[in-house]
């Protein structure tokens, strides 16, 4: 078992609110367990370039409430090559880094696995607003992103109602409708259009025509089979209702993390360090049924996250 003396932490892929809370937990837990800890800036790109900074106990004061990531983040095409991975391992070795904690999504975990295979033990912490990481019920940033989107839709509802309009709201989610589904339920949407479900748009037109209401909210995942602009056009044409499209976009990724994101990020950060200090690598930490746990990275990547069918059914029942 590798003896850990000094470890690194980086954030990779899209940022998500609560990543700073996880960095803080990683740093404070490392100090608690007597490990030296450095922050790697700009994800794997920064690792290859040796862009690192020591993280003292107090360097993470007053970041728990901040969105974004103090370490910055990046998606690196260079790291995605065998040479890139090798050079990252060499740089870690030159800097006497014995293990690395990676906060990010599935793509980042694939990189972490390759680093582990070349001898640099890694632990992944799920961080993405999409909540599409299969091994965990929860990923850092999802709760905040949901709340931001719901707050925005509450505002849209006021103006939709005043003008008797239909509001189409595009919600983020690279390949997954998980975020859109929760947002749709929490905002009382008439329909939630997500990639996992074959919605016949005719059903949506029928629902609008059958309702006696004068305003509607339709949530569309960015991963839905039709672009939200097209959905807006079709609904307007087929129902004759004045329709407006709002793309929430990156607004959903910014701002102060919710209490839930801060608490879960702190738990996951602690768990990651607890594994590292024992010399355990090649794992992803996770929260399942409210319990902290961890999985082999490949096992975590192989799992499939299926849509919560009951939740989808409920969303349809309550929107009738
Ligand atoms: O994976 C997180 C996410 O916010 C997705 O929901 C979205 O599709 C993507 O990142 C956007 O990426 P970028 O920040 O590179 O535009």
Structure summary, number of beta strands? 11
CATH class of the largest domain: Alpha Beta
Overall tally of domains: 2
**What overall geometry do the principal axes of the alpha carbons give?**
elongated
What quaternary form is this? single chain
What radius of gyration results from the CA coordinates? 21 Å
Question: How many individual helices?
Answer: 11
List its traits.
320 residues, alpha/beta, Rossmann fold, 7-stranded mixed sheet, 11 helices, 11 strands, binds 6-O-phosphono-beta-D-fructofuranose
Notes on the structure:
There is one protein chain. The chain has about 325 residues and is α/β, with parallel strands linked by helices. The protein has two domains: about 180 residues, 3-Layer(aba) Sandwich (Rossmann fold); about 110 residues, Rossmann fold, CATH 3.40.50.460. Helices cover about 40% and strands about 20% of the residues. The chain contains eleven helices and eleven strands. Strands 3-2-1-4-5-10-11 form a seven-stranded mixed sheet, with helices on both faces. Helix 1 runs parallel beside helix 9, helix 2 packs across helix 3 and helix 7 crosses helix 8. Bound molecules: 6-O-phosphono-beta-D-fructofuranose (F6P). The site of 6-O-phosphono-beta-D-fructofuranose has 10 residues, from loops.
């Amino acid at each position: 078992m590798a003896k850990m003396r000094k470890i690194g932490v980086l954030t990779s892929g899209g940022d998500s609110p609560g990543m700073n809370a996880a960095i803080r937990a990683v740093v404070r837990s490392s100090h608690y367990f007597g490990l030296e800890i450095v922050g790697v800036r700009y994800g794997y790109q920064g690792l290859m370039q040796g862009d690192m900074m020591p993280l003292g106990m107090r360097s993470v004061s007053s970041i728990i409430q901040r969105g974004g990531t103090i370490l910055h983040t990046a998606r690196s095409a260079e790291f995605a090559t065998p040479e890139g991975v090798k050079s990252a391992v060499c740089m870690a070795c030159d800097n006497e880094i014995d293990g690395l904690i990676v906060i990010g999504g599935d793509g980042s975990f694939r990189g972490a696995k390759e680093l582990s295979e070349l001898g640099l033990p890694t632990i992944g912490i799920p961080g993405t607003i999409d909540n599409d990481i299969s091994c965990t019920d929860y990923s850092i940033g999802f709760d905040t992103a949901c709340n931001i989107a719901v707050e925005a839709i509450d505002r849209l509802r006021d103006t939709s109602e005043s003008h008797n309009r239909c509001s189409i709201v595009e919600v983020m989610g690279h390949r997954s409708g998980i975020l859109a589904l929760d947002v749709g339920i929490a905002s009382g949407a008439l329909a939630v259009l997500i990639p996992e479900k074959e919605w016949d748009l005719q059903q949506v037109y029928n629902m609008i025509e059958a309702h006696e209401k004068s305003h509607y909210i339709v949530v569309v995942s960015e991963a839905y089979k039709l672009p939200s602009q097209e959905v807006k056009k079709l609904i307007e044409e087929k129902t004759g209702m004045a329709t407006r499209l709002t793309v929430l976009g990156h607004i959903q990724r910014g701002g102060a993390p919710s209490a839930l994101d801060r608490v879960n990020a702190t738990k996951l950060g602690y768990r990651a360090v607890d594994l590292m200090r024992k010399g355990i690598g090649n794992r992803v930490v996770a929260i399942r049924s409210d319990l902290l746990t961890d999985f082999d990275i490949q096992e975590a990547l192989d799992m499939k996250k299926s849509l919560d069918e009951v939740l989808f059914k409920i969303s349809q029942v309550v929107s009738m």
